[in-house]
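Reviewer 2 asked us to include a model.

Predict the structure of this chain.
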Amino acid sequence: MIHHIEIYVSNLEKSIAFWGWLLDELGYSTYQSWEDGRSFKMDQTYLVFVQAEEKYLDVPYHRKRVGLNHLAFQATSTKHVDQLTEEIKRRKHPILYETQHPYAGGPEHYAVYCEDPDRMKVEIVAPSK
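Predicted model (C-alpha cells):
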C-alpha cells in the first residue's frame, strides 16, 4: 500500500481548485492544510500538494520527461466517469484523447483523461466488468 505521494506544484491555488473538488468526488477528504500545501486522504493513503519554491519554477513539469507520467484513480462506475467528464469540461480543464473518449485506453477501458493545472495527466477509470 502506498502511504503518500507528494507533488510540488507551480501554483498551489490553481492546483487546489482542481484537485480539491476532484479528490472529494473520488472519496478523499482534506487531511492537512498549511500556507504552502494541502493534503487529501482516503483510508491510510494521502496525496500532498506543495507550492514549489520560486527558484525551481524555471523548468515546467512535462509528463514525458523522466519522472511521474500520470496518476490514475478508480471511479465507482461508467456513470461516475461520465459525471466527472462533464464537470472537468465545465471547469474548462483539457480532456485528453477526446476523439477516442471514453475508450482511449482500449475497448475494455472506460476512462477519462485530463490535465491538472501543471499539465500532469490524470486518468479516472471505471471498474472492469
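The chain has two domains: 1-53, 69-129. The beta strands are 4-9, 29-34, 37-42, 45-51, 70-74, 95-96, 111-115, 121-125. We have added this to the supplementary material.
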